[in-house]
Amino acid sequence: NRVLNLAGLAGYIDRNPLPRGWLPKTGPKKRFPVLYPTEDRALLACEAVPLAYRVFYGFLHREGMRRGEAAALTWGDVDIENETISLDENKTDHPRWWRLSAGVAVALEAWREVRGDPEDDELVFTDEHGRPLSLDHLADLVRTHLAAAGLTRADLTSKGPNKGPFGIHCFRRSFVTRSLALGKNED
């Protein structure tokens, strides 16, 4: 919108073709909580949370993938032996390849054995019946699972004018926060 307004002012176009008020207003960004390492351990150890979701949450927290990308991941995208992932299609249409975080390949290898050595075209994250994990209302589900794990830190559930509660995308936020604190970037 700004570029179009500038183009109009500079005389490159007669006027901005976007009607006034058509674009959403930008407001202050909300702050969302991150999961602390002790909370991560408690969540992943909680047997009241189905194993498929614990593996999924642990993966998201360590790899920083979007929930949809991770849910669509097949065993053919994962190279356990070389501890890498190859992601061809994603939100940004930029194919990516990277080395898995420490311990993730070992966890995925164990998960593959639990799943009965699935074929390369099968999804990595499925429930106990081999069905894709439901992504509907995942934010509510993760908060239910956090409560089941005894995680009662108010920051995980409270919301306010400038703050949101912990949701599934917070695993990605936690990953980015931890990576930046360790001096890592996308390079």
Characterise this structure.
- The protein is mainly α and 187 residues long.
- It starts with a helix and ends in a 6-residue tail after the last helix.
- The model has no long low-confidence stretch (mean pLDDT 89).
- A 3-stranded antiparallel β-sheet has the order 1-2-3, with no helix packed on it.
- The protein is built from 8 helices and 3 strands.
Can you summarize the main beta sheet?
3 strands, antiparallel
Beta content? 5-15%
Global shape: globular
Q: Give the C-alpha Rg.
A: 20 Å
Can you give the mean pLDDT? 89
**Structural class from helices and strands?**
mainly alpha
Q: How are the strands ordered across the major sheet?
A: 1-2-3
Per DSSP E runs of 2 or more residues, the count of β-strands stands at 3
Gap between N and C termini: 31 Å
Number of helices, counting only DSSP H or I runs of 4 residues or more: 8
Report helical residue fraction: 25-40%
The run of helices and strands is: HHHHEEEHHHH
Poorly predicted spans? none
Question: Keywords for this structure?
Answer:
mainly alpha; 8 helices
Short structural description:
This protein has eight helices and three strands. It is mainly alpha-helical. Strands 1-2-3 form a three-stranded antiparallel sheet, with no helix packed on it.
SSE topology:
Layout: H1 2-9, H2 37-45, H3 51-63, H4 67-71, E1 78-79, E2 84-87, E3 96-99, H5 104-114, H6 138-148, H7 154-157, H8 170-181
Antiparallel strand pairs: 1-2, 2-3
